[in-house]
Specification:
Number of helices: 11
Strand content: 25-35%
Number of domains: 2
Largest sheet: 7 strands, mixed
CATH superfamily of the largest domain: PurM-like C-terminal domain
Helix content: 25-40%
Number of strands: 13
Order of helices and strands: HHEEEHEHEEEHHHEHEHHEHEEE
CATH class of the largest domain: Alpha Beta
Distance between the termini: 31 Å
Length: 341
């Protein structure tokens, strides 16, 4: 039988998806998006998402405080709800702890998780704990509510839609490069990069606004890199996409890192991942009105970076030519994958 490295993360997901029906009583949306959607009746739905964080894969304890890990473990799950436009409500925590984990570590982890929960008005509703023979593993399930027919999936994009980002990209990739000792950053640039990596801010309010007003045609959060996550939208929507490199808003730390690493700043930022910004598609005629709406309601900017089209996959327009990017994004079970925090 083919092993996990040969199959890859998404082929493994498809193996399971093929064995189960796409619909079931109460299930409005199943495998393949940022969250499943459960129909509660009365015009209300529940979005449910789960995720794992594994020591040595998603984080190294040598470079992450327990409080930051607690905060981030919940924040990245809430970002999946943001990508659907759901209002976060509940969380369930699963902890597999090595036998000699210090009590102080657990207290600090709790403090970070509680801080994130309070910031986003989430209640911990249950979970499970067990011993781990090697390393720390965290699992979280989150649930959020929305109105039937209003939550946004990856599959609603159409050729001609404009692709937008919820903010400058690449700060988390810079933070990872900094923690790995591959670059040096100073002052506010270093603090911003570390914070982007260790204390991400899920764009819950932006997701809810886009969903409630019916503006976003397709949406995803940037966890594995803009290039890969836009590819998910393209596959689900049956489209291709072109990103205009000159339009991509870059975090200043990403530009500094690319200079030190002697690589293209745009590809560094687009492939880095873990920004947890929203990446979404709007009808071309809705773009300017939506930008004004977001400025008025949330006092922030959204940034057009390209368009969906009928071409093959995700391409990058840069320096007068259009090409397939050399960089990709993070994939589990792939021997060439980049390290995570």
């Amino acid at each position: 039988m083919t092993g996990s490295e040969q199959l890859g993360e998404f082929a493994i997901i498809d193996l399971f998806r093929r064995e189960f029906p796409e619909s079931a009583p109460g299930l409005a949306l199943g495998i393949g998006d940022d969250a499943s959607i459960i129909d509660l009746g009365g015009g209300q739905v529940l979005a449910v998402s789960c995720d794992m964080l594994v020591e040595g894969v998603h984080f190294e304890l040598a470079g992450t405080s327990a409080a930051d890990l607690g905060y981030k473990s919940l924040a990245v799950n809430l970002s999946d709800l943001a990508a659907m436009g759901a209002e976060p409500l509940l969380a369930w925590l699963m902890l597999a702890l090595p036998e000699h984990t210090p009590g102080r570590f657990i207290e600090e982890f709790k403090r970070g998780l509680v801080e994130c929960a309070r910031n986003y008005r989430v209640v911990l509703a249950g979970g499970d704990t067990c011993a781990s023979p090697q390393g720390l593993t965290l699992g979280l399930t989150v649930a959020g509510r929305g109105r039937a027919g209003r939550l946004v999936t990856r599959s609603g994009g159409r050729s001609g839609n404009v692709v937008l980002l919820g903010g400058p990209v690449g700060a988390a990739a810079a933070g990872l490069a900094l923690l790995q000792g591959r670059v040096t950053l100073a002052g506010g640039e270093a603090r911003a990069a570390r914070r982007a990596l260790l204390r991400p801010r899920p764009q819950v309010e932006l997701g809810r606004l886009l969903a409630d007003r019916g503006r976003a045609r397709a949406m995803i959060d940037v966890s594995d890199g803009v290039l890969q996550d836009l590819g998910h939208i393209c596959r689900a929507s049956g489209c291709g996409a072109v990103i205009d490199a000159e339009q991509v808003p870059l975090a200043t730390a990403a530009t500094s890192c690319a200079r030190q690493l002697d690589c293209d700043a745009v590809e560094f930022a687009l492939s880095g991942g873990e920004d947890y910004l929203l990446l979404f598609c709007l009808a071309a005629e809705d773009v300017e009105a939506t930008r004004r709406l977001v400025r008025r309601e949330l006092a922030c900017e959204i940034h057009p970076i390209g368009r969906l089209d009928d071409g093959p996959g995700v391409r990058l327009r840069q320096g007068g030519r259009t090409r397939r990017p050399a960089a990709g994004g993070y994939q589990h079970f792939h021997s060439g994958r980049k390290g995570r925090d």
